[in-house]
Structure prediction request, 714 residues.
Amino acid sequence: MTRRTADVLAAARKHDLAAAVATKHVIVCTGAGGVGKTTAAAALALAAARQGRRTIVLTIDPARRLAQSLGLRSLDNTPRPVKAVPGLDAMMLDMKRTFDEVIDRHASDRRRAEAIKSNRFYRQLSNSLAGTQEYMAMEKLYDLHAGGAYDCIVIDTPPTRNALDFLDAPKRLTDFLEGRFLKMFLSPGLAAGRTVGRVAAFGTGIFMKAASRITGAGVLGDLAEFFQSMEGMYEGFKNRAQSVYRLLQSHDSAFVVVASPETPALREARYFLQRLAQDGMPTAGLVVNRTTPPAPEALAHLTRPRAEAAARRLADGGPEHRAAAALLELHADRVDVHRREQRAVIAALHNVNPRALIEVPLMGSDVHDIAGLDAIEAYLVASEPSRSAP
Amino acid sequence: MDPSNLLDPRLLIVTGKGGVGKSTVAAALAVAGARTGRRTCLVEVEGRQTFSRLFDTSAWDFTEREFRPGIFGLSIDPEASLVEYLDMFYGARRLSKLVVGSTAVEFATTAAPGIKDVLLIGKVKEMERRRDGDGRFHYDLVVVDAPPTGRIVNFLRAPDATTEMVNVGPIRSQAQSLVDMLLDGRRTHLQLVTLLEEMPVQETVDSVAALRGLGVTLGPVVVNRVLTERFDAEGRKALTDDLEPAELAALLTDAGLDVGEDAAAALGQLGYSHLSRLGLQERMRDELRRRVTLPTIELPYVYGAEFGADAVGVLARKFEEAVT
Prediction:
């Protein structure tokens, strides 16, 4: 580990997410799938609500029992009060409905909105275009922000394989919607003077030939109809995406990157931290869930060779001796795993500054109720003022 | 209900919830395949270079490389598959040059969302069906480190999704032949990976139901990162019958470790949290057994200061034991 990484790590460990919870209007939890984003988001929202802030946690796909403990029963886009916590609402994102709302908002009239929503391509797009889920999460986020009912909005991002999709989503969708090939559909004359824009003319360009060979001709027809009916809405989409992006970039927002202590999740966390820095997005911290804590002070100097040597001497004794041997082996294993995890964290943070680094140890049981969230919250938002963010 | 048929099909699609260690399991399956004399190919589909890092090789690409005796590896992406596909069906090298590197691929794949998967699985099928000059199959085993289960379920529903969109053209017949391959239990097993934790077990239960509903043949469920108990029964009893820190400290001193009572108390705590994790694990194991009627293969949590090819080798042994 370089001197600089060591310093950054030491400084980051002194900070937590207390300031973000107390002051930020939007908190985005992001990271690889299966690392505990939803749990972190729920714990942060709990902390904000406990400080008297009107708070909502917007989740995408929570574990069943966690959802139940938050009082969520279905994906219905409706904020529900969390009974056990005054001032806290929770809501699950309904992608399809959110997309429909977007169309309703941007379409020039109802008839056109209905035409779009019944298009086959739209029905596919709203379910499976890469980035749609992320885009819709952003949409809903902006909606809640504009609604003004909440002091603090905490959102956990969809479990995408590549966490970067989240930042790219609004841009990707607008890029696509105003892309070159789309224009070829929509604007006569752009494709080398040919009239493109009618379904019948699609076979003309070599690109269209290639595209229809891949997709079949019917697709292009639906597609053309879809884009033609969307015409005039792109400006609205684009403005909206830009507003979302600006909101995320502002000092009212904070990103919390979540990872597990395994290398793949930490590698994604690293890319995400780099990307946030690159885009000028405000990073509040890196949360590493389910870590193996270091040996306590009393055992700090008990090395693996010494522990193993003693364990061997105890192994042939009575039950107490064998219990002691097993405890020494557990200690030796823990020291190794802790070191492996630390190495992965250090590698992820080489030349990257997460501001705050919070390692949440593996809990005795899965987190699925308010008490479990409280235990997580205690790590994310430690009470000592010395740990609050700069 | 024994898992000895684990490596029987030519194609293993390894999937599961994010974070359960799919890639590690896929790698271990491939190593086990090679060690049991199968000519094996390990396939990465999302271009994350997980395997080149794990096995410490140069970066993987669309070229199959024998990175260890008997194991080939490649990383497939939709673009490269598309070029090969266009070549195969149209001899359209000129066309493919125009298509690739433009936004055309992005465009076509966005137009019909199932297409990306058709192209990826299409390449997998080509490898699964490939024959050598003597008429024998080129690979005995193809292991795919696949996307999370939800996307596979979507793909298997894809003839509906894809063909609703793509009602003519070669993609449609291709999509159908891929679904045929995936649903043929003699050729393909889906290999679910899980952990003995609440969310992964829940998702496995849901996935099994969804995949069975689609007619997929499932291999044994691979349970990853299983803790093994460090105590024998008497030793555990000795600990839980109030082994006092002072007593433990004295035992340690006799064994040459003069660490004091605080250290002994901390060691005791470690023992109790170990037992509590084991208790949770046991409940999840029961839950899995009760709700999923498939054989399971448990892989041990691998300790050690490094996780690399050696650890994969340890896990591969478990698979070898299961099939021999």
